[in-house]
Structure formats: structure tokens, C-alpha cells
Amino acid sequence: MALDPAFENVWDELVWRGLVHVSTDQEALRALLGGDPITYYCGFDPTAPSLHLGNLVQLLTLRRIQLAGHKPLGLVGGSTGLIGDPRPTAERTLNTPETVADWVGRLRAQVERFLSFEGDNAARIVNNLDWTAPLSAIDFLREIGKHYRVGTMLKKDAVAARLNSDAGISYTEFSYQILQGMDYLELYRQYGCVLQTGGSDQWGNLTSGTDLIHRVEGVSVHAIGTPLITNSDGTKFGKSEGNAIWLDAEMCSPYRMYQFWLNTDDADVIARLKVFTFLTRAEIDEYVALVESEPFRRAAQKRLALEVCTTVHGSDATAAAIAASEALFGQGDLSALDAATLRSALDELPNATVAEGAPVAEALVATGLVASLSEARRAIGQGGVSLDGRRVESDDVTVQGTLPGGVSVLRRGKKTLAGLFLN
């Protein structure tokens, strides 16, 4: 990871990459980021056992600013995670303290992978439970709550949306913005932190902190809100219902992550290269030309998938995912793949569990590659079916699970695949 040397100031690179949707004073921020090292932070709430692609925007932004010589604080919200920021339409389900504590550990480990903990600007991980837990309710109201005006809090987008919904909003979630504001104040006092980054949908919470510090300490601090990443058709990016692209390999395999990026639309791929990779402006300009002149080669998508998957999962896991992708689509040896990668790849395909020795025709029906046994037999007779990379010559061929991990791969035609697991 390295900054683009074409930019003298990391602020200019952040702007070029489209990472500044909203911010406090831009001229002051440019001077701040181009000057002596500052301390800055971003918070991550443990409302799930893993971070996702939306969080990756913040992790990479933290790293970019650190590469410019500044000192990052990665905050994992052991206290705010017990509440969760308000959702647009309904109250969150509150997780147990034990669950949140476990998730804090998981998220901390993920954040640590993206930052450097060496040198003069070494990163530090902090937990807001450390300063929130000892605080009594009375102290919280007297020392922090008195600085907030309810009218201002009601105008925050997340709160206003909930007030206008049938569900309303509880005091618990209403108080979230005060807790996040208190975090910024505490980090300012402990570490001299003067910048917070976050998603633009968190802008109300970010400015809660800047306003509180100005009111209590009489100083101006800063915030940057990155844009919410959406697809060119306006749909939510990387977090479809029940199908989020998580950074934890057990929740989202490297193969699945690689395929996700490989399937990026031409209209989105250049913007994704800017946000999610460290490729320079000159390198990205080359892909702009390739997308326009040779979109069928999908060179930009392949580079995007390679870069992001390597950043998140490492080069070995990425190489295994690429090998699996190529082998499944006829450009490599299926039997040479490692069992875990192959199985995770088959999980992303239509698949079925069949008995060892089951006829291929039955397996074709079970996986949904054909609608009936008669259609399966016709496909086999026409030479359009293969099993584990070999053409099926007759109805007598059976499934044996000959690939690593005792699985099999069915293919109908050139590109229609399915996985077979044996019971």
C-alpha cells in the first residue's frame, strides 16, 4: 500500500478518489492533512461478528491518511455496540454484553490488519467501553447531556426518519449521537485527536462530536464523511439482504469476494478502483481506456478483484480463488485445487447433495441444470454434459466425488455449472 506520488497532499488524493462527500472546512482540512502529524479516528461498532465492505471504505481511508504520516486511532465500540446507531425504520435487537464483547475482539483483529503499528505514527486501538463503563448515569447527564439541545438532536436525519415512522424511536437509540460525541471529546482529551472520518450517513453523529468539543473545549476539530457506495443503478452496494460481503473469510469466502468484484459493472468499475485500491491515477487512467476500448476483456474488473481480495485475504488465498475460478470455467485443473477453496466455490454455485454412485442424469435434475430425466438424457446424448472436467459419454456414468474434498462438478454446455456434495 502506498499513496500516489502525483499528489502532494493526501487531501487532494482523497478528493480525487471521491472519498469526500461532506466535511468541515475544506481549506482547513487540506492545511491540516498537509502539515505536521495529527491524530485522527474512525469508529466501528460490533453489531455483527465481522466488518463488511462499507467498513472497508473507512479502513482504507484510515490507512491512506496514516501513509501521509498521521496517527490513526481505530475505535471499536464496546459501549455503543450495546446500543447501535438508529436504523431508518425500526429498533435494533439488542445483543447480550457477552456477544458484544466477543464481537469487539473479532472486529479489533480485523481493524488491526489494515493499519501499521510501527514507527512514529503507529496506530492505536481503543474501546469506548473503557471510558463509558465507569461513568454513572447522573455524571453522564451532568457532564455530557447538558451540552445537547433536544431540538437540534431531533433534526438529525436518522432521528427524524424514525420519528416519522410507525416504530418511532426509543430513548436508547436517541441517545446514540450523544455517546458518539462523547467519544470524540474523550479522544481529543486523551490523544489530541482532531479529525474523525465516517460514512456520510453518520454525519449527524460526526458533527455531534465536533459541536461538543467546540462547546466544551472552545476549539474547532474536523470531520470527513465519505460517500455511501451504491451501484450505478442506485441499489445498495455489497450488503444485500442476508447476503453481505463480509471481511471474515468464514462468513464470506475469498472465492465469493473475488467473484463479487469480478462481476462489477463497467459503469462502476473505475469508481471502485479509486475507492478500494491503491492504484495510482496514471494506472487507473489506463483502465479507463481499456473499459472504453476493450470492455469484453474485463481487465479492470480482474485487477479490481485481485487488488481488493489480496488486501483483505492475502495473496495466497487470492491465488487459490483465481485458480478455482479459472478451473471451474475450463481454464485449469479442477483436481489441483485445494479442498477448502473448491468447496467454498461450489457453495456459490447451484448445488445438491447426492448419494455416491448416483447416476449423472439424476444429479443433473437434482441441481436444477435440467428439468427432467428425459432432458438430462438428451443433454448427455448430445455430448453437452461433463463431470469433473470430463465429458459424460453415456447414461451409465455415476457420481463418485473424485475431486479434492470428495466433491464433484457438473457442467452443462460451456458456462452452466453446479456442485455436487456426496452423503
Strand order of the largest sheet: 1-6-5-2-3-4
Fraction of residues in helices?
40-55%
Question: How would you sum up the global shape?
Answer: elongated
- The residue-averaged pLDDT reads 94
Report the total helices.
19
* Category by helix and strand content: alpha/beta
**Proportion of β residues?**
5-15%
In CATH, the topology of the largest domain is named Rossmann fold
Find the CATH superfamily of the largest domain: HUPs
Using only C-alpha atoms, the radius of gyration works out to 25 Å
Structure, explained:
With 423 residues, the chain is α/β, with parallel strands linked by helices. It folds into 3 domains: 10-229, HUPs (Rossmann fold, 3-Layer(aba) Sandwich); 253-347, Orthogonal Bundle (Tyrosyl-Transfer RNA Synthetase), CATH 1.10.240.10; 349-423, Structural Genomics Hypothetical 15.5 Kd Protein In mrcA-pckA Intergenic Region, Chain A (Roll), CATH 3.10.290.10. The chain is built from 19 helices and 13 strands. It has helices at 10-16, 26-33, 53-67, 97-112, 129-132, 137-143, 150-154, 157-163, 171-174, 176-191, 203-217, 254-262, 266-276, 281-293, 299-313, 315-328, 339-347, 360-367, 373-381, and strands at residues 22-23, 39-44, 71-76, 124-127, 193-199, 222-226, 239-240, 243-244, 351-354, 385-387, 390-391, 407-412, 416-422. It has a 6-stranded mixed sheet, with helices on both faces. Strands 9-13-12-10-11 form a 5-stranded mixed sheet, sandwiched between helices. Strands 7-8 form a two-stranded antiparallel sheet. Helix 15 (299-313) packs across helix 16 and helix 18 (360-367) packs across helix 19. The model has no long low-confidence stretch (mean pLDDT 94).
